[in-house]
Design brief:
Length: 398
């Protein structure tokens, strides 16, 4: 059951290298240069770290290159939650995950109610980008909707990959002067085309790194097989119980990471019970596999999931909370899961799930789902609304 390294194209290798580097800069709060697929150049900084000195640096770098004033870019879902847009951007104009891109550009001057006449300020960025900040925006600013692909949309994809709030501060500079501004300010540059290529193919190549025996309380005959993307990105685990016969449909569970539920035993969700329940059930049936996918919080990351929890504490449901933070209701793809299953030699599964999206995506990525095994556990006093919302809004088969 060993896996030869999947080939990765030189083009994707170059794309992932520059995307990963820039993601790391953004996570550190640094400024980067984006040469958009639409031919425009943007200075980009994560909105989450846009304090006063950071904004001043954006202004200064933009001014050096004859560029414009900073603007804030958010998703259409976030713009709606902030009261700046009334309806979502049409699917044809949205990025591949469904998010539309909205630019809020307060020009300096007295005419913009709510902006203090100073253009984009740290307070305004926080108010519009971070839903956990109290306060409401009443601005006389018409948001600009940018159809994807646009440089702004690519900038949003970058901060999503960085697992930060999906919002960026940008300033456009003339494309002809982008290289000069980047060099003068020691900025990493990324091409929008690379961001898109990475987004489309980033998780289709996974490598098996190491395999070790890890006897579990409920399944002693268990091996962990660790997979890593060749770009050094996130690591996923296969929890292989017994010796499943690849010639037969294997009993399988795709489990998205949930730090709070899996590790801490949080009662807000059903993840802990589902994970341990799957291991028990597979062991009882003799063999099977749990794929432990690094997709915390339906792939918005732990920090953003905790933000969504704060909104849920104020009465918002789990789907709307994701939208208010600026994400889609569910940001997961099961391409890594399909890649791992095939690498392990499994081409047909009996899938333990209540989530129809897992069934259809696995089929789409070339794994045959011969049967669905319901995977339901009793609700507790804390997760009943969460489970109801999954059934009513996310189509879960409960
Ligand atoms: N964003 C967000 N994520 C949550 C919330 N509650 C749980 N999660 C995440 O949701 C995911 C649940 O994963 P799974 O149990 O694999 O998937 P599922 O969609 O419930 O489908 P099945 O359990 O297979 O029926 C985990 O990544 C959790 O961290 C929430 O309120 N908000
Ligand atoms: Zn959970």
């Amino acid at each position: 059951m060993s896996l030869a390294a999947e080939p990765i194209s030189p083009l994707l290798r170059t794309a992932s290298r520059s995307v990963q580097r820039v993601v790391s800069e953004l996570r550190r709060g640094d400024l980067v240069m984006l040469q958009g697929g639409d031919g425009r150049a943007l200075l980009v900084r994560a909105a989450e770290m846009a304090d006063a000195p950071a904004l001043a640096l954006v202004r200064q770098a933009a001014a050096q290159g004859g560029g414009g004033e900073p603007a804030l870019v958010v998703t259409d879902k976030r713009a709606i939650a902030a009261g700046l847009l009334t309806q979502a951007v049409e699917p044809a104009q949205a990025d591949p995950m469904g998010a539309g891109t909205v630019v809020i550009a307060p020009a300096p001057g007295p005419s913009n109610k709510g902006t203090s006449g100073q253009g984009l300020t740290p307070d305004l960025v926080r108010l519009l980008a971070d839903p956990t900040r109290p306060g409401h925006a009443t601005l006389d600013i018409t948001p600009i909707v940018r159809p994807f692909p646009s440089a702004e949309g690519e900038a949003l994809l970058l901060v999503k990959l960085a697992r930060l709030l999906p919002a960026v501060v940008v300033a456009e500079v003339p494309a002809a002067r982008a290289a000069e501004v980047a060099a003068r300010n020691d900025l990493l540059t990324v091409r929008g085309a690379d961001v898109q290529a990475y987004q489309a193919a980033g998780e289709s190549t996974l490598r098996q790194v190491v395999e070790a025996s890890v006897p579990l309380l409920d399944a002693e005959d268990t091996r962990l097989i660790a997979f890593r993307a060749p770009d050094g990105g996130v690591e996923h685990l296969a929890i292989l119980i017994g010796n499943p016969d690849p010639a037969q449909p294997v009993l399988a569970r795709l489990h998205s990471e949930c730090f709070t539920g899996d590790l801490l035993g949080s009662l807000r969700c059903d993840c802990g019970a589902q994970l341990r329940g799957a291991i028990r059930e597979i062991a009882a049936q003799g063999s099977g596999v749990v794929l432990y996918l690094a997709q915390e919080g339906r792939n918005i990351g732990l920090m953003n999931k905790l933000r969504a929890y704060r909104l849920q504490d104020a009465g918002v449901d789990t789907v709307d909370a994701n939208l208010m933070v600026g994400f889609e209701a569910d940001e997961r793809t099961y391409l890594p899961a399909a890649t791992m299953l095939k690498a392990l030699g499994f081409h047909a599964v009996r899938l333990m799930t209540n989530n129809p999206d897992k069934l259809s995506q696995l089929a789409r990525w070339g794994v045959q789902v011969v049967d669905r095994v319901p995977h339901i556990f009793p609700a507790n006093g804390h997760n009943i609304a969460y489970l109801r919302t999954k059934a009513e809004k996310a189509g879960h088969l409960l």
